[in-house]
Amino acid sequence: MATATQNGRTPTSASRGAEGASESAPMEFLIAEDNGGKYHWTLLDRAGESLARSPRFVSYEQAENAAGVVLAGAGSARLERRAATDSSVDLPSSTKVPITG
User: Fold this and answer.
1) Counting beta carbons within 10 angstroms of the beta carbon of residue 49, is it exposed (0 to 12), middle (13 to 18) or buried (19 or more)?
2) CA distance 48 to 38
3) Residue 34 Cα to chain centre, angstroms
4) CA atoms 92, 96, 100, 101: torsion sign
5) Do β-strands 28-33 and 39-44 pair in parallel, antiparallel, or remain unpaired?
6) How far is CA 57 from CA 12, 23, 81, 87, 89, in A?
7) 8 Å CB contact between 69 and 92
8) Cβ atoms 34, 56 nearer than 8 A
9) Domain boundary assignment for the chain
10) pLDDT (tens digit, 9 = 90+) per residue, 20-53?
11) H-type helices in 37-91, by residue range?
12) What phi, psi does 42 have (nearest 5°)?
């Protein structure tokens, strides 16, 4: 069972949404610490249901940075009708978030 998000942190730009986002479909990023002391972000829809979850990060800041990368790039993302036959995805090095530990 995961623990609650860290106390004392204020919402970040990653959790506030993109400028010009539709008022009818607000989403938010929730950054939480798991029982192992690692962090992940979860993208929640308007009803609070999980739409996506990140891998684990060593620090809150790394999880927050990764959520910001997703938020910044979402508007330019392409929607593919079918998944490619090769399930691996190579991200440009500028969008990879280093994970240590």
Assistant:
1) exposed
2) 22
3) 15
4) negative
5) antiparallel
6) 17, 30, 30, 22, 19
7) no
8) yes
9) 26-75
10) 444 556 899 999 999 999 999 999 999 999 999 9
11) 60-74
12) -125, 130
Token pair recorded at residue 39: 């962090």
- CB-CB contact of 99 with 58 (8 Å): yes
Per the document, the length of the chain is 101
Strand partners, 41: 31
Work out the mean pLDDT of the chain and round it to a whole number: 74
Name the token pair of 85.
Answer: 């036959």
Q: With a threshold of 0.70, does the pTM exceed it?
A: no
Give the pair of three-digit tokens for residue 69.
Answer: 């990368």
Tokens of 31: 């950054």
Task: Tell me the two tokens of residue 82.
Answer: 């079918």
CATH 3.40.50.620 fits 26-75, yes or no: no
CB 42 within 8 A of CB 75: no
The H helix count followed by the E strand count for the chain is 2, 3
